[in-house]
């Protein structure tokens, strides 16, 4: 499967129905989207957005403490990223209002999972079409689509496990990823007992991405917790 850098975008999902939140998160997770935060109210969404810095939002129109329309205006006042409305309100006036405020798309519940994925992917491709998919580290670059590292003009191949570990680290760039989470990313649902194997893979990854693997500046060990990937601009 090609590594799609667009699937690393941070998504904010806002709806007051927990069942709907769980369903949409599951649909997006199965497609490869992992950076998803959920909120049930306008207040929660604003609080989350202040630290999470979403790059795409899926909003309901009817929320307990306000409307999705006003929420979108508030969110876009600080950062102009794409918005999809997913709501039970299918009246033409509501659609016109949503598009008039700058929404990228408007879907009415109930919906087909495939249609939601089609629209989400279309919005992201359209909104971020000019973005460079190369991930820039302090001393090298990662091309996830080609599964290789570019360092000092040389192209160095990544193994499947190295690719999976780096992908998990990149999804959480600048944040600590636990040893258990990295083992699960590389070895699946039963990751226990792979800690030593993970350490060996981390060493090999550092040899590929670092100028001096003994003094890493890109892939940092957080003692007792896990690892952190330092990405330029993140």
Describe the structure.
This protein has 8 helices and 14 strands. With 234 residues, the protein is of the alpha/beta class. The radius of gyration is 20 Å and the shape is elongated.
Could you name the key traits of this structure?
five-stranded parallel beta sheet; alpha/beta; 8 helices; 14 strands; four-stranded antiparallel beta sheet; single chain; 21% strand; 234 residues
Write the layout of secondary structure elements.
Elements (H helix, E strand, L loop, with lengths): L10 E4 L3 H14 L4 E4 L2 H11 L3 E4 L2 E2 L2 E2 H9 L6 E5 L4 H9 L4 E4 L4 H15 L7 E2 L4 E3 L4 E4 L2 E4 L2 H12 L5 E2 H9 L7 H15 L9 E4 L3 E4 L5
Parallel strand pairs: 1-2, 1-3, 3-6, 6-7
Antiparallel strand pairs: 4-5, 8-9, 9-10, 10-11, 12-14, 13-14
Helix pairs in contact: 2-3, 6-7, 6-8
Rough outline: elongated
Unreliable spans are none
User: What is the rounded distance between the termini?
Assistant: 25 Å
Provide the residue-averaged pLDDT: 91
Q: Give a quick account of the main beta sheet: strands, pairing sense, barrel closure.
A: 5 strands, parallel
Gyration radius from CA atoms, angstroms: 20 Å
As a percent range, the share of helical residues equals 40-55%
Structural class: alpha/beta
Element order: H for helix, E for strand: EHEHEEEHEHEHEEEEHEHHEE
Total of DSSP H or I helical runs spanning 4+ residues? 8
Query: Strand order, biggest sheet?
Result: 2-1-3-6-7
Oligomer: single chain
What is the strand tally?
A: 14
Strand residue percentage:
15-25%
